[in-house]
Design brief:
Chain lengths: ~170, ~575
Amino acid sequence: MEAVDEAVVLEPGVNAANEGQFLTFMIGEQQYGVEIKYVTEIIGIQNITSLPDLPHFMKGIINLRGKVIPVVDVRLRFGMEERDYDERTCIIVVSINDTNVGLVVDTVAEVMNIPEESIEPPPKVNSKANGNRFIYGLGKVQDNVQILLDTQKLLFDEELEQLSAIT
Amino acid sequence: MFPFFKNKAPTPSGSGENKDVTEIKLHRKKRSYPPGKIAVNDTTIREELKFLGLTERDLGVVKAWKDVAQENMDELIDAFYTHVQNFPQTRDILHKHSSVERQRPLLTAYVKTLFSGVIDNDYLEMRKRVGIVHERIDLSSSYYIAMYEIIRSVFINTLKEICASDEEIQDFSESFNRLIQVDTALTIRAFNTARLEKVEAGRKKQEKMLNNLGDEILGLTENARHGRLGQRIDAHKYEPEVRDVLLSINEVMDVIMEPVNEALSVLKEMAEGNLDVKMTGRYEGDHKQLQDSLNTTIDRQNELLQAISSAVKQVAGGSSQVSDVSQSLSQSTTQQASSLQEITASLTEIGGQVQQNADNSGQAHDLSRETQEKGEQGKERMARMSEAMDEVKKSSDQIGKIIKVIDEIAFQTNLLALNAAVEAARAGVHGKGFAVVAEEVRNLAQRSARAARETTELIEGNNDKVNRGIRYAGETSVVFNEIVNAIDKISVLIDEISVASREQSIGLKEVNAGLSQIDRATQDNTALSEESAAAAEELSSQAEELRGLVSRFKLRVNGMGQSAMRENETIFDYN
């Protein structure tokens, strides 16, 4: 909490084009981050309507103020164990190529500045599996490491097409 | 009459002439008869000869043919023995007592005397001897008659062969007949006389035998009458016939006396105190009864004396024990008396203690009542405390709900602040001030959430403590219940102690009374135990005397049971 408190202090004079700003969230004990420029809004968990014949990580759709938005469970997308939703579960609505997608996460943490020099590329291991394809870099904030996600790659193209088809 | 005469060849005459028989008869002169002689001293025999018609002339007539007889003697004797051998009876007698060879000379001599022409004392003596011998060998008189007849027949045949005249044959035949009759009579007389003497001797012997037998039996009876039953007849000095009878009588006496003698020796042993005896002979009938009766008597005496021995031993042991017991009883009663004094003193002390007990138990009773009341109060207070705890818990639950609402608000506020921050970030430079405000709001929301979380933790801690308090109160309540119940039981026990103390008080009085009686009884006991000791001494000496009396008897060991045997052995060793 202390670390978070310090991390969220926004330094004045940081680029106005919101470069280096990330919204961080929790999956289990690990903190992940997405570039804030993709984030539309954060909402609490909603009633999700499931649809037939979708990939298993696609939980369904929600109605957000009259707009139908598909919802992806990040845990399932990462091949992690599924967990029941609770009052802390949030949906981060991101906009990718003018498509809005809801990402279900355990909970959101904060908005954080991570300078370019503090970001390292992901490790070159496990090339066969595509486990690292979502990772944009590893952000070092004090002693912690934020896994910064490449929102573009968070979904496959074909999957995105499916999403477009849905909306 | 005799077959062999027919086959006989004509025998030449004594002169040896071989002339025709008729011619000889014609040419021979008639034989002159020499005088015979009867020279017998015994007048009785002389009279008998006269009675039988034998004259001295007859003797001369026979003697006239003496030469012819001597020439034909072998022929005469052979004819006779041939005849004798033809009959089994006569032949057996002859062979039994003699033989032809031995008799032949005697018979020859005998026949010669017939032709001697003299009857004198020697002649008579010879006939008498023959009669006696024939009686001895039991030869029938027909033997003589046959002999004389054979000699007469053969001789007359001989006379005919030598051509004696009919007159001469007639003379010879008549004279020889009379001589033969005399001879036969003499021999038979001797035979009969000998037989009579023999019979008389036998009769006398028998008479003597019977007399001896009678005398011996009378003597035996006389001895028996005077109890001299050991006397026996000396049978060996008598003839075998009597000896057997006398030996049988001796045997009868022996058989009668054997068990009597054995019984006598057994009774002698018994008289000397030896009862380890019995009649062992094999007897039958009346003797068996005697034996059984005597043996049974001995058995009974053995049993009786063994029983007495056993009893004496027991009496001796018993009296010794009584003596010991009396002495220890005397000591005990002395100890008893001093113990009684101690007991009396102790009882007085106990009496005081019992009274003290009664008082204490009364106080304890009151105390337990008070304790019980306080226990009840404690129980009640604990119940009230439990209720208060329950209320505290309810309040905590309500506070928890409120805190949850606050936490929810803080979460929503945080979301709003994040959205505002996102919005501000997207606004870039223009959203910078807004971003600061959003951050402050977010901080406040997070502090609210933290405070709520801490409060929740505190309330949860409170709830745990309250729950524990409730549990402790319940347990304490149970303990109070147990205390109350225990005090109930204590009260009951104290009541019982009170009752028991009163009863002890009463009992002590009775014990005191009893002790007085025991004291008197102890004094009596002292006197009695001394008397008892004296009596036991007396009994012991009498048992010893009786043991001495019984030990004079030697009792039977065999055939008794083991235990009886041991008793028998020890009975004379004790003391």
